[in-house]
Design a protein that fits this description.
CATH topology of the largest domain: Rossmann fold
Shape: elongated
InterPro entries: CheB_C, Chemotax_prot-Glu_Me-esterase, Sig_transdc_resp-reg_Me-estase
Order of helices and strands: EHEHEEEEHEHEHEHHHEEEEHH
Enzyme class: hydrolase
EC number: 3.1.1.61
Catalytic activity: [protein]-L-glutamate 5-O-methyl ester + H2O = L-glutamyl-[protein] + methanol + H(+)
Mean pLDDT: 90
Keywords: Chemotaxis, Hydrolase
Radius of gyration: 24 Å
CATH superfamily of the largest domain: Methylesterase CheB, C-terminal domain
CATH class of the largest domain: Alpha Beta
Number of domains: 3
CATH architecture of the largest domain: 3-Layer(aba) Sandwich
Oligomer: single chain
């Protein structure tokens, strides 16, 4: 098998495997491209059954990605659980770097690495899934001259990932899975491979890709691509920088965690709810203590404790109502996605 002329990079999450099997079944063994796939998996899962399932539906050579594997045309590489899948030149990198958008593997990390390595010879694809992974990645692909493809949300089991990509990126093609194989075969046959001029790859993306390869960056490096903002990284508690370039609002910390604005908002919501549940527990304990004090005292002192008890009961009820209301709204939003 030869070195690929193109990289096809795919990001998917909920509902992804049935769609992937339908897509790869349309791709010929002679495809002059390597296909790299990020399917969100549980950290303690194994990717081998998924590779076996894909191989039963395609003539592409399917395998679980391993570090330093060569990239070969007509091959499909699936990201291992709890590892980022990256590329450099014509080789695969598998790393355990920081989460991006709370995911590892992350489609954004793969798309950025591929875009920096192959430039205009990258086709980025976002398929069915929850939340926002892949949106910033498609922007990376476009900024390096590549092509952005999104599954038609009307054809997706879970529409969040395709809809997020369409809101933020100038996508080139929006197609159902039934038409995607023919589109990809046509796109990779349009031009012969020529090495990409590094000068045409944005410097900030080159730097971010280098940070991801080394697993962890420095304050000086992240300061080159963004400006510090008064926000805290949910992953490590460090400072965050707002990334200056690109069409998607993003944030990074110097240890390597990266977030779109939407992913950061969801992380902060989760942390806030956890904090408020702790506060509710502490208030309940205070209520119990005041109740004991009021029942054991006499006279004016006992009346004071009873008043304090009634006040904290009101606070507890308000906080409980707020938390339960937030949980119900979150469940409704998830169902809509």
């Amino acid at each position: 098998m030869a070195t690929p002329s193109f990289l096809i990079v795919i990001g998917t999450s909920a509902g992804g495997m049935p769609v992937l099997t339908r897509l790869v079944a349309q791709l010929p063994a002679t495809l002059p491209a390597a296909v790299l796939v990020v399917q969100h998996l549980a950290p303690d899962s194994t990717g081998e059954p998924l590779v076996h399932r894909l191989s039963m539906h395609t003539s592409l050579h399917c395998q679980l990605a391993e570090d330093q594997m060569p990239l070969l045309a007509g091959s499909l590489y699936l990201a291992p659980p709890d590892r980022h899948l990256l590329t450099r030149e014509n080789r695969i990198l598998v790393t355990k770097g920081p989460h991006e958008n709370n995911y590892r593997p992350a489609a954004d990390a793969l798309f950025r690495s591929a875009a920096v390595a192959f430039g205009s010879h990258v086709i980025g694809i976002v398929l069915t899934g929850m939340l926002h992974d892949g949106t910033a990645g498609l922007d990376f692909v476009k900024r390096c001259g590549g092509t952005a493809v999104v599954q038609d949300p009307a054809d997706a089991a879970f529409t969040s990932m395709p809809e997020s990509a369409l809101r933020h990126v100038a996508v080139d093609y929006v197609v159902p899975i039934s038409q995607m194989g023919a589109l990809l075969t046509e796109l990779v046959g349009q031009k012969a491979y020529e090495p990409e001029d590094p000068l045409h790859i944005p410097h900030d993306l080159q730097l971010e890709a280098a940070i991801a390869e080394r697993v962890m960056g420095t304050v000086e490096q992240v300061s080159e691509i963004g400006h510090q903002v008064p926000l805290t990284c949910p992953g490590c508690g460090g400072n965050l920088w707002e990334v200056n370039e690109g069409n998607v609002l993003r944030f990074r910390c110097h240890t390597g965690h990266a977030y779109t604005a939407e992913a950061l908002l969801e992380s902060s919501q989760h942390e806030m709810e956890e904090t408020l549940w702790v506060a509710l527990r502490m208030m309940e304990e205070r209520k119990n203590l005041l109740s004991n004090m009021a029942s054991r005292g006499e006279g004016y002192w006992s009346i004071q404790q009873a008043e304090r008890l009634e006040e904290i009961k009101r606070h507890i009820n308000r906080l409980r109502e707020f938390l339960l209301s937030g949980s119900e709204n979150g469940s409704s939003s998830a169902e809509k996605k």
